[in-house]
Amino acid sequence: MRITILAVGRIRPGPERIWLDDYLMRARAIGRGIGVRAIEEIGIETRPATPLREAEAILDRLPPEALVIGLDERGENLTSRHFAEILRPGGSCDDLAFVIGGADGHAPALRARFSRRIAFGSATWPHRLARIMLAEQIYRGLGILAGTPYHREGPIS
């Protein structure tokens, strides 16, 4: 399985980039042991930044057969254990893509590609923090699947 994070905007060098890279590095290390071949984070920039242009740029970068999950404040709120199930390798897809849209949300053409929408609560989060939170949940979810002690509840059986 490959996991791709497609997010509008770029994170410049600084604390957010350090946190994001740390969680992605940890997730890659755990993922290798359970069948995740790659975890990639791609920043998308468009000028002018409109939902339609952002959607076109994201759709161009999506792996063709990917299961696409949109991050949306109106999406499902999942526990970390339920999130981990999304990441379980060996399911019906070989590519999993998470999409974080721009400030004005997702265009209909992009939403049409979503297999599901998830939220990190009902609050609106800054895109840089949402990206870090997603990377942490990927790391946590893979840790749950691998049975590491990071998530205190233990592995999913």
Question: How would you characterize this protein structure?
Answer:
Helix 1 (15-32) links the parallel strand 1 and strand 2. A 5-stranded parallel beta sheet has the order 2-1-4-3-5. The chain is 39% helix and 24% strand. The protein is built from 5 helices and 5 strands. The protein has one domain (2-146): Alpha/beta knot, CATH 3.40.1280. The two termini are 20 Å apart. With 157 residues, the chain is an alpha/beta fold. The mean pLDDT is 90.
Radius of gyration computed on alpha carbons: 15 Å
The domain count comes to 1
Number of strands: 5
Listing every helix as H and every strand as E from the N terminus to the C terminus, the arrangement reads EHEHEHEHEH
- Largest sheet, spatial ordering of strands: 2-1-4-3-5
List low-confidence stretches.
none
**CATH superfamily grouping:** SPOUT methyltransferase, trefoil knot domain
The largest pleated sheet is described as:
5 strands, parallel
Terminal Cα span: 20 Å
Share of residues in strands: 15-25%
Share of helical residues: 25-40%
In DSSP terms (H or I, runs of 4 or more residues), the helix count works out at 5
Mean pLDDT figure: 90
CATH topology: Alpha/beta knot
What's the CATH C level? Alpha Beta
